């Protein structure tokens, strides 16, 4: 590990509990719906009863006489929004709420009822008479849907390396399979909530989001306000996982309410509304073809992915991303097709693209190992690339092989009988499987201020977010190291858009991006003459340093190992062991980083075995829009999980760190699916691996 | 109960008695959060499916979103705010911090209240679905990870803090066993 020679503190690399721990275990931490506020009114969202159509009438007359009701907003009287306001990839129709009578998908907000109390608002919302004309809708996704078209290439051009068809034709061993993943939902435990009010011509909000500055900027453009007229704060956020990365409907509607009724308005989505209104991971269908020589050398990777999208907003579920960087091969081809349907616009969910893509690629690699008669671990090691197989760029720190070898040693992989359906314990079948992962890492511009106070302490200000990621705690350590002082001398303020532009907690780019700005500010502060009589502040925006050019392939890596038991009578799959070895650069706080990657692995476990948004083609609606129907892992589903890190330092990244937020999720589903094959001898190419699917395959 | 569908009730929460006039349909969760500003209890689903709203009624855990405020009259209600009444965190809370038994913290109030109730249930000899020998002497039953996972399964955590939560609960149970 070659950390910079002049590092003198142990701030980075030491486990420390979360700074906000005492507040969170005593119920004192206030989330977006928890702030008491004078004169607060409550808005309840009314959603569309049809999956596509037109609002014929909303008759509010009866509702307006109900106790406590202040009013009803719909497309006829709601404040106008700028249709050009952008989401992730250009203008985003999902933000254009209450702007027209058209209904583009089930669960679309059609009205906001505002009343003095939450109960009065809910009662009025239940009573609101909405009549619609239903139009035919199409919510049934297939890869060969006639509406399918090429996806945007903003996240990377399709790969066209070598002659894939010729290589496949001359490969002695070929895998050619299709893989399916359903709609999945981030399901953060905190439903989206916002409180908005006006304070001397300035719009103020407490909101549940992953990036207060980005949300404020989008909010300003949507309502045609100047950026300095908007302030958004999100001190404590109850999880996001992608679903709170954008300006959400809760804040748009709360803002409308505060404008219309001249008082603070709080909008909290119900759990059901979170399922119906917030972008999900789209369903995917993928075809993966691998060709290899008998010694296991890959000759070709062909990864073709299709996913569902909404015409309201662009989205790219970039499934083949991992196929471009994981393995050496002579030929690589990737294609991505977007299929527009009448759906809530899909959005990011932990490891977007890579996660379903990894399930397909790493399952196919396991199938290839089986057909070659080569150990799946060995197959991956044999195809370690020297340079990026598509980009041709050299790799930054790349310790996938170390993750695989060390993980295998700890897991006891080498004593594994490669043949499936050999291990039994009583009536249970037992199997093990693995998967490898790469997850791109980089740093984006942010603004940080550091003040050297007169008492020798420092105050760091940056509009970072802590959505459970531990960033508050990690950034204090990074600042302490950069300033060469102990962590006890650092105070930090985050999650306030007034602190300036900052990358959000997304794309596993949060910590590297914020660390960059903090490091630059600290360096410049240390160059300032010291003045003990007055505080000295330095502010840096790394946008001035950002080139947008990447000269190396910089990725985090992991190897995930799983052991499952399968009950052949009931089809029940249980994950008995899960081990992840990670190469995420320097680990700022091992206690917190371990929690984060373990949490990611548990989400991958849910993807493998439980999670599935079920859509009824007749109504066009998700029928399991609650936790009784949409199953996320519970305590009893989760074994003790081992996760650890190989020593690493990434010289191209600030503080030597890579992101850790998503990589835990990416490879876990394939590792579990491969273990289920090893236990049963049967492949599951459709997620989740439900009881009925196991029983059917066994029959 | 009055004719207007409202009731004057008194709720005893964390050793303090509060007089309230509530709509009879008000859940205990809403009464705590909206009327008493005890926002530590969270609303993850409002349907009894997530456990984020778990509180203790006379020491027994309930999901407060499925409990009517009027029905909680006459009980001793303990919320997460009452777990450390004098500001001194109890061992379970300290274990959650030290072992990182939460990430976003949104499920945490529920996990903590649930764990307090669960440890009491176990100490009282109540079996769970994971208990192998239900005839065994209560005090001799050992609490292990499988038992804790089973008994805590009503409390969802999307951040996936489960392994650390189980460790924190077991460590606390060990300490209690030593001091008992
Ligand atoms: S809010 Fe009560 S169980 Fe979810
Ligand atoms: S800590 Fe975030 S849901 Fe449990």
Automatic annotation (TrEMBL), chain A:
> Which residues lie within the region annotated Disordered?
1-22
Q: Where is the Aldehyde oxidase/xanthine dehydrogenase a/b hammerhead domain?
A: 26-136
| InterPro entries, A to Z | Ald_Oxase/Xan_DH_a/b (IPR000674), Ald_Oxase/Xan_DH_a/b_sf (IPR036856), Ald_Oxase/xanthine_DH-like (IPR016208), AldOxase/xan_DH_MoCoBD1 (IPR008274), AldOxase/xan_DH_MoCoBD2 (IPR046867), AldOxase/xan_DH_Mopterin-bd_sf (IPR037165)
Task: Provide this UniProt record's keywords sorted from A to Z.
Answer: Molybdenum, Oxidoreductase
What molecular functions are annotated in GO for this chain?
iron ion binding; oxidoreductase activity
Q: Which Pfam families match?
A: Ald_Xan_dh_C, MoCoBD_1, MoCoBD_2
Instruction: Give the protein name, as stated in the record.
Output: Xanthine dehydrogenase family protein molybdopterin-binding subunit
From TrEMBL, chain B:
SUPFAM superfamilies annotated for this entry? Answer: 2Fe-2S ferredoxin-like, CO dehydrogenase ISP C-domain like
Q: Which GO terms describe its molecular function?
A: 2 iron, 2 sulfur cluster binding; metal ion binding; oxidoreductase activity, acting on the aldehyde or oxo group of donors
Supply the alphabetized keyword list: 2Fe-2S, Iron, Iron-sulfur, Metal-binding, Oxidoreductase
Tell me the superkingdom of the source: Bacteria
Q: Which residues form the 2Fe-2S ferredoxin-type domain?
A: 7-83
Q: Does the keyword Cell inner membrane apply?
A: no
Q: Which InterPro entries does the record match to this protein?
A: 2Fe-2S-bd, 2Fe-2S-bd_dom_sf, 2Fe-2S_ferredoxin-like_sf, 2Fe-2S_ferredoxin-type, 2Fe2S_fd_BS, Aldehyde_Oxdr_Iron-Sulfur, Beta-grasp_dom_sf
Keyword Oxidoreductase belongs to the record: yes
Metabolic or biological pathway = Alkaloid degradation; nicotine degradation
- Identify this protein by name: (2Fe-2S)-binding protein
**Organism (species):** Sphaerisporangium album
């Amino acid at each position: 590990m070659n950390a910079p020679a002049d590092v003198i503190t142990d701030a980075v690399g030491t486990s420390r509990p979360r700074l906000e721990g005492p507040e969170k275990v005593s119920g004192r931490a206030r989330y977006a719906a928890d702030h008491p506020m004078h004169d607060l009114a409550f808005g309840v969202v009314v959603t569309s009863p049809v999956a596509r159509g037109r609002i014929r009438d909303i008759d509010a007359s009866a509702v307006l006489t109900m106790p406590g009701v202040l009013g009803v907003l719909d497309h006829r009287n709601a404040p106008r929004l700028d249709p050009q306001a952008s989401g992730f990839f250009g203008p985003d129709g999902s933000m254009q709420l209450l702007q027209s009578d058209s209904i583009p998908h089930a669960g679309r907000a059609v009205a906001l009822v505002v009343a003095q109390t939450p109960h009065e608002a809910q009662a009025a919302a239940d009573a609101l008479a909405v009549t619609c004309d239903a139009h035919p809708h199409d919510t049934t996704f297939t890869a060969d849907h006639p509406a399918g078209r090429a996806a945007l290439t903003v996240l990377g051009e399709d790969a066209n390396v070598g002659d894939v068809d010729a290589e496949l034709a001359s490969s002695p061993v070929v895998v050619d399979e299709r893989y399916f993943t359903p709609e999945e939902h981030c399901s953060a435990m905190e439903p989206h909530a916002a409180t908005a009010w006006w304070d001397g011509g300035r719009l103020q909000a407490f909101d549940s989001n992953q990036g207060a500055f980005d949300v404020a900027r989008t909010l300003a453009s949507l309502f045609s306000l100047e950026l300095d007229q908007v302030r958004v704060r999100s001190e404590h956020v109850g999880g996001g996982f992608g679903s709170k990365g954008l300006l959400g409907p809760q804040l748009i509607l709360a803002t409308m309410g505060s404008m219309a009724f001249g008082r603070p308005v709080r909008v909290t989505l119900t759990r059901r509304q979170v399922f119906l209104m917030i972008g999900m991971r789209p369903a995917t269908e993928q075809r993966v073809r691998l060709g290899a020589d008998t010694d296991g050398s890959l000759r070709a990777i062909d990864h073709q992915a299709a996913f569902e999208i909404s015409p309201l907003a662009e989205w790219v579920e970039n499934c083949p991303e991992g196929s471009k960087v994981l393995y050496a091969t002579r030929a690589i081809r990737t294609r991505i097709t977007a299929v527009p349907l009448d759906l809530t616009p899909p959005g990011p969910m932990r490891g977007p693209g890579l996660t379903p893509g990894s399930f397909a690629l790493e399952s196919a690699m396991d199938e290839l190992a089986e057909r070659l008669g080569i150990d799946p671990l060995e197959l991956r090691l044999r195809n370690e690339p020297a340079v990026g197989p598509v980009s041709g760029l050299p790799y930054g720190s790349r310790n996938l092989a170390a993750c695989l070898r060390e993980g295998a040693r700890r897991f006891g992989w080498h004593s594994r009988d490669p043949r499936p359906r050999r291990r039994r314990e009583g009536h249970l079948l037992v199997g093990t499987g693995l998967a490898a992962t790469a997850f791109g890492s980089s740093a984006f511009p942010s603004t940080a201020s550091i003040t050297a106070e007169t008492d020798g302490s420092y105050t760091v200000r940056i509009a970072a977010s802590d959505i459970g990621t531990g960033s508050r705690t990690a950034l204090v350590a990074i600042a302490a190291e950069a300033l060469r002082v102990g962590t006890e001398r650092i105070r930090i303020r985050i999650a306030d858009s007034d602190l300036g532009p900052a990358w959000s907690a997304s794309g596993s780019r949060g910590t590297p991006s914020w660390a960059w700005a903090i490091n630059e500010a600290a360096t410049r502060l240390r160059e300032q003459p010291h003045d003990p009589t007055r505080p000295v502040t330095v502010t840096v925006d790394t946008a001035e340093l950002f080139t947008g050019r990447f000269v190396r392939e910089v990725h985090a890596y992991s190897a995930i190992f799983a052991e499952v038991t399968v009950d052949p009578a009931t089809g029940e799959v249980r994950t008995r062991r899960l081990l992840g070895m990670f190469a995420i650069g320097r680990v700022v706080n091992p206690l917190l980083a371990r929690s984060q990657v373990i949490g990611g692995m548990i989400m991958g476990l849910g993807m493998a075995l439980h999670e599935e948004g079920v859509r009824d083609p007749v109504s066009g609606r998700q029928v399991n829009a609650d936790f009784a129907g949409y199953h996320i892992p519970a305590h009893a589903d989760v074994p003790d999980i081992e996760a650890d890190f190989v020593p690493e330092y990434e010289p191209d990244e600030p503080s030597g760190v890579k992101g850790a937020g998503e990589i835990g999720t990416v490879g876990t589903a394939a590792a579990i699916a491969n273990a289920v094959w090893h236990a049963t001898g049967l492949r599951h190419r459709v997620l989740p691996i439900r009881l009925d699917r196991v029983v059917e395959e066994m029959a | 109960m009055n004719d207007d569908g409202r009731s004057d009730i008194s709720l005893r929460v964390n050793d303090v008695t509060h007089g309230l006039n509530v709509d009879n349909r008000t859940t205990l969760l809403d009464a705590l959060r909206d009327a008493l500003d005890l926002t530590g209890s969270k609303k993850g689903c409002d349907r009894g499916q997530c456990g984020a709203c778990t509180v203790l009624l006379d020491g027994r855990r309930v999901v407060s979103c499925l409990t009517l405020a009027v029905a909680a009259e006459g009980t001793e209600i303990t919320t997460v705010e009452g777990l450390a009444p004098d500001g001194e965190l109890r061992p379970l809370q300290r274990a959650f911090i030290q072992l990182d038994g939460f990430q976003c913290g949104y499920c945490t109030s529920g996990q903590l209240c649930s764990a307090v109730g669960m440890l009491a249930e176990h100490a009282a000899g109540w079996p769970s679905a994971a208990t192998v020998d239900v005839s065994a002497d209560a005090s001799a039953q050992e609490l292990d990870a499988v038992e804790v996972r089973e008994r805590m399964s009503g409390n969802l955590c999307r951040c996936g803090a489960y392994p650390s939560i189980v460790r924190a609960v077991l460590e606390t149970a060990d300490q209690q066993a030593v001091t008992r």
